[in-house]
């Protein structure tokens, strides 16, 4: 009897291993070709536009504007870094609203020295508080670029560049090549510059239109896979109908016993916590993240609690907790996917906007903090959390507490996909019935989800 059951278990485990493997192969082959693709923001990109405003005796003056067309991914402090390679022997005579990090070798020049002579300049934004005579519109925000949905007014960044030793007509100018964008870390891939129709500018009174001499565009897209291999957030779940709290998966963002960089963590009971958290460092150095020791080691946890059931409504409480001692998240955002997000009745103390990744699909919402109230998620500690409640109106045709329906399908924090617990561990309704069916279903679904979360 016993050997029979153990044999059938081993067959089952072989079968499910096979399923995992097949699903893995299928999903990896379909994902590699679409690496930068984000299902919830398929068009998301950062587009840079170079408008040549005038020709000079040895080159041109251009205004470069970066637009963040991503719905929910912003570029946080310390901001963007932009690089490219000149096609010829161009130099930068001067810049307004940004600067290169290095001047390079300008020894060929006498008297009036260029701002930068490097073949591959690296440009950063100026800091807030820059004198007005060194500013242009949309500059000097320390490289911070907000997302399109959250704050369209601050989703652009501009600087002016005066280029020498360059072409002086639209026939002789060579567009720069090999653009790179750090935002602030890796993750973005930029395409080649494409000459497009010259931008038209309308005067504020709309009575006159001028146009650029020449315009080229560069589009950069983001891939979480390129950015870092370890996830940065995880999801935990609970409900009023079952006392089980399903925590984040163990080792979701790293493992504690592994003392490599992702494994280093700090016990909150450490004496002299303050001095360990911020050791004396040179000004301007960026400290590596330091997270609180947890089973999951994620800097961010999103907790989804199914709180109450009413006749026509149901209520969810969302808590976002910061476990990173070395990072305050300003202007954080979160994206949730759940079928009932098409019919939110009320949301308390977060901003909300429905995202429609595809026409007719309304199951995705972006949430972010209310300015000056909870848009700042403090470092790990007593204030390191923000919370809100959502009231959903039930659609009687689809609503159920069974099979984990009330839990989100996907959660993103600051544009990064969060690791979900495996579906067959979700808290379920007492006497919920179809448990067996559900775990067979999840045996197929789980590897897909697993691969999905760890691949981006
Ligand atoms: C960049 O994003 C904008 C806005 O979503 C979209 O209109 C445009 O087609 C995108 N560009 C590319 C090259 O994907
Ligand atoms: C070039 O970029 C600008 C701003 O990012 C955008 O408005 C314009 O549509 C782009 N042009 C083309 C042809 O993609
Ligand atoms: C250069 O300018 C001329 C005259 O304005 C125009 O006809 C031509 O299309 C432009 N070429 C490019 C590559 O923009
Ligand atoms: C730079 O871009 C050119 C095409 O514009 C490409 O052939 C070359 O491989 C790139 N070089 C690097 C180092 O990426
Ligand atoms: C620790 O992590 C590194 C890199 O992530 C990995 O190569 C190594 O095998 C891990 N060690 C253990 C004991 O898990
Ligand atoms: C986070 O913000 C608080 C209050 O502004 C500040 O005291 C603290 O030093 C900041 N922490 C980090 C890691 O930047
Ligand atoms: C999706 O939501 C938007 C805004 O709430 C609404 O205008 C639109 O009609 C909805 N679409 C569907 C298919 O429900
Ligand atoms: C929300 O649900 C109510 C009741 O089911 C329905 O009357 C209403 O049209 C729904 N609204 C949307 C935007 O789907
Ligand atoms: C609550 O859900 C868990 C699965 O996550 C299950 O093991 C447990 O039996 C459930 N509790 C009740 C009272 O049904």
TrEMBL record:
Bilayer-crossing residues are: 438-455
Signal sequence interval, chain numbering: 1-36
GO CC terms of this entry:
plasma membrane; side of membrane
- What keywords were assigned to this record? Glycoprotein, GPI-anchor, Lipoprotein, Membrane, Signal, Transmembrane, Transmembrane helix
Pfam families hit by this protein: COB_C, COBRA
- InterPro entries, alphabetically? COB_C, COBRA_pln
- Is the Glycoprotein keyword given for this protein? yes
The entry's localization annotation reads:
Cell membrane
The topology of this chain with respect to the membrane is: Lipid-anchor; GPI-anchor
Choose any GO biological process term that the UniProt entry carries and state it: plant-type cell wall cellulose biosynthetic process
Domain COBRA C-terminal span(s) in chain numbering: 232-427
The similarity comment for this entry is:
Belongs to the COBRA family.
Name this polypeptide is given: COBRA-like protein
State the species of origin: Raphanus sativus (Radish)
Recorded name of the encoding gene: LOC108805804
């Amino acid at each position: 009897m016993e050997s029979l059951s153990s044999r059938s278990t081993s067959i089952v485990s072989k079968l499910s291993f096979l399923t995992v493997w097949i699903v893995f192969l299928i999903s990896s082959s379909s994902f590699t070709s679409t690496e930068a693709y984000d299902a919830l923001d398929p068009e998301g990109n950062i587009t840079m536009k170079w408008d040549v405003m005038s020709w000079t005796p040895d080159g041109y003056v251009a205004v470069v504007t970066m637009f963040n067309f991503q719905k929910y991914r912003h570029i946080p402090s310390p901001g963007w870094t932009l690089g490219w390679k000149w096609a010829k022997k161009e130099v930068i005579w001067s810049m307004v609203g940004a600067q290169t990090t290095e001047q390079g070798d300008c020894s060929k020049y006498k008297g009036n020295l260029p701002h930068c002579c490097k073949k591959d300049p690296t440009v950063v934004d100026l800091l807030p508080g820059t004198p007005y005579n060194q500013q242009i519109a949309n500059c000097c925000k320390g490289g911070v670029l907000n997302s399109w949905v959250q704050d369209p007014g601050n989703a652009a960044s501009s600087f002016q560049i005066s280029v020498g030793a360059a072409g002086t007509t639209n026939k002789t100018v060579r567009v720069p090549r090999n653009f790179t964008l750090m935002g602030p870390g890796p993750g973005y891939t930029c395409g080649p510059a494409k000459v497009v129709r010259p931008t038209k500018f309308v005067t504020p009174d709309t009575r006159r239109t001028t146009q650029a001499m020449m315009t080229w565009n560069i589009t950069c897209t983001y891939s979480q896979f390129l950015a870092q291999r370890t996830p940065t957030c995880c999801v935990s779940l609970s409900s009023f109908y079952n006392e089980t709290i399903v925590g984040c998966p163990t080792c979701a963002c790293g493992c504690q016993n592994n003392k490599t960089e992702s494994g280093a963590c700090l016990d909150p009971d450490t004496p002299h916590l303050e001095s360990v958290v911020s050791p004396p460092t040179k000004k301007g150095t960026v400290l590596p993240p330091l997270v609180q020791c947890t089973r999951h080691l994620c800097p961010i946890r999103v907790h989804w609690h199914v709180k109450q059931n009413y006749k026509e409504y149901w209520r969810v409480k969302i808590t976002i907790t910061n476990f990173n001692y070395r990072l305050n998240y300003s202007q954080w955002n979160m994206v949730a996917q759940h079928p009932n997000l098409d019919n939110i009745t009320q949301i308390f103390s977060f901003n909300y906007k429905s995202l429609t990744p595809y026409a007719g699909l309304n199951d995705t919402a972006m949430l972010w903090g209310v300015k000056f109230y909870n848009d700042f998620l403090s470092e790990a500690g007593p204030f390191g959390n923000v919370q809100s409640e959502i009231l959903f109106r039930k659609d009687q045709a689809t609503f159920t507490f069974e099979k984990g329906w009330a839990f989100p399908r996907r959660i993103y924090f600051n544009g990064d996909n969060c690791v979900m617990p495996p579906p067959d561990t979700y808290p379920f309704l007492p006497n919920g019935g179809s448990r067996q069916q559900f775990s067979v279903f999840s045996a197929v679904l789980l590897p897909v989800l697993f691969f999905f979360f760890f691949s981006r």
